[in-house]
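Example record

The entry below shows one chain as it appears in the dataset: sequence first, then structure tokens.
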Amino acid sequence: MYLSRFLSIHALWVTVSSVMQPYPLAWGHYDVCKTQIYTEEGKVWDYMACQPESTDMTKYLKVKLDPPDITCGDPPETFCAMGNPYMCNNECDASTPELAHPPELMFDFEGRHPSTFWQSATWKEYPKPLQVNITLSWSKTIELTDNIVITFESGRPDQMILEKSLDYGRTWQPYQYYATDCLDAFHMDPKSVKDLSQHTVLEIICTEEYSTGYSTNSKIIHFEIKDRFAFFAGPRLRNMASLYGQLDTTKKLRDFFTVTDLRIRLLRPAVGEIFVDELHLARYFYAISDIKVRGRCKCNLHATVCVYDNSKLTCECEHNTTGPDCGKCKKNYQGRPWSPGSYLPIPKGTANTCIPSISSIGTNVCDNELLHCQNGGTCHNNVRCLCPAAYTGILCEKLRCEEAGSCGPDSGQGPPAHSQPALPLLLLLLLLSALLGTANPLVF
């Protein structure tokens, strides 16, 4: 009897806990663009901001090396062992699969032994610099959601720049500089991301944190995305509303985490000394075993699906939008200027759907399905929407205070605040009743 009561109470508590989960656990998903709801006018669409799930973006990239013949093995050459730079009898041979190190091995499945990696030719052209550009291209705008992680099989380079492009490689901007000596290499004082703040989060820094030579436990280089998010969302990224508010209102911040291409500029290999040993140039080369780039297709909060077809990523647009990034309104849906969706208010955001053009509507301005009046407006004879006092527009889509430029926290206008549902209170009372051993359920 007691066991049965305990199990019933436990099951009830699990239900209560799931209902009372704080909103932050749901923030950041936005995995539904619209749902059907029932109103006094019948079943209508309720539109929400939406975006694709974060995923491993290296599955969709194209890689390019410059110079194109920089990969080792053609012709075959010997190089020094990773852990022992004086043991120089290892061979790279592009014509032998087990001795080849092509670029695609930077993105293959890791965890096999021995590890697979791309490797450059050795520094045989000294004193000419051994420099390599590795360009990662998506032919699509993507939003970074996690740290960029580069794992070297060789020593980490003495000098390196990570760059980004927002226009498919036409122009480039530095993301971060890496060096064993930032002042000498780039005339910059060394910093780490921990030295930044909300106000300086967009500062381009040079770090010496990831540029130690042949240490076997020091193979990884980071570009810290999450540490920058944490300036707004807290150390465990729990306050996503704050971050989303900043992304909504600060285009420069939004663009900072947005790329079409990344470029890794390897400027000087791990030397570990002040001077290059010209008699043992086979000691110096680059080798990368893994590159991780996690993000999502940028769809301007108008799509949850991004399809990869014919080597191309494209958003499956909702909200009457179109284009590879859902960056414009569909034909005949240009009744107001296109706008990206908004993350706010939490947790559903604002869809900012494209509405029909006046010329395409004719006399049928509204109905109870696709052209329903918004924000509590009512459809009158399919000719016009009767809007609440706070709203205006063809479909009651605009706040009157926005047109007057007087919206504010004290204006009394705007979307109603979301409150916690009443269901958890009912379940808690039921649980309390069970714990007290009440024979009859509480009546409301």
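Notes for this example: The radius of gyration is 29 Å. The chain has a mean pLDDT of 82.
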